């Protein structure tokens, strides 16, 4: 009997393209941000020395999507939640990400950030 296997990667890519093709809603969107930051995972969980260009583009999108104090708090909570769900996360690389991408983000990206600002 033949077994049917479906690769997870094309499904994630399709979901990512679908979500990013949607028109932006008012305010920060955590789901879109989490999906757009998927290209950062190889850098954040392996011994890769530099993030992918697509990761830096996603970080730039995150930075531009934070327009208000409310967005800033939502982005912070979203990233803390996302980081907590990533096994084998190299916490030192989280801190390096904005510097390596040469993107100044509106708040420090660390794993111990206090979102209460």
Write up this protein.
This protein is mainly alpha-helical and 117 residues long. The protein has a single domain, classed as Plant lipid-transfer and hydrophobic proteins (Hydrophobic Seed Protein). It is built from six helices and no strands. The protein has helices at residues 8-21, 30-36, 41-45, 53-65, 69-84, 91-100. Helix 1 (8-21) crosses helix 2. It is globular. The protein starts with 7 loop residues before the first helix and ends in a 17-residue tail after the last helix. Residues 1-24 have low confidence and may be disordered.
Question: Helix and strand layout, with pairings?
Answer:
Layout: H1 8-21, H2 30-36, H3 41-45, H4 53-65, H5 69-84, H6 91-100
Helix pairs in contact: 1-2
What is the residue-averaged pLDDT? Answer: 77
Shape: globular
Number of helices: 6
Domain count: the total is: 1
**Portion of residues within helices:** 55-70%
Low-confidence blocks of residues = 1-24
Element pattern in H and E: HHHHHH
């Amino acid at each position: 009997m033949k077994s049917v296997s479906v690769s997870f990667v094309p499904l994630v890519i399709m979901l990512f393209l679908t979500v990013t093709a949607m028109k932006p809603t008012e305010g920060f969107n955590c789901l879109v941000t989490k999906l757009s930051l998927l290209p950062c995972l190889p850098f954040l969980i392996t011994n890769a020395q530099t993030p992918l260009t697509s990761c830096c583009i996603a970080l730039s999108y995150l930075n531009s999507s934070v327009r208000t104090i409310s967005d800033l708090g939502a982005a912070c909570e979203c990233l803390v939640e996302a980081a907590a769900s990533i096994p084998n996360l190299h916490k030192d690389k989280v801190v390096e990400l904005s510097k390596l991408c040469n993107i100044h983000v509106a708040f420090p990206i660390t794993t111990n950030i206090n979102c209460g600002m």
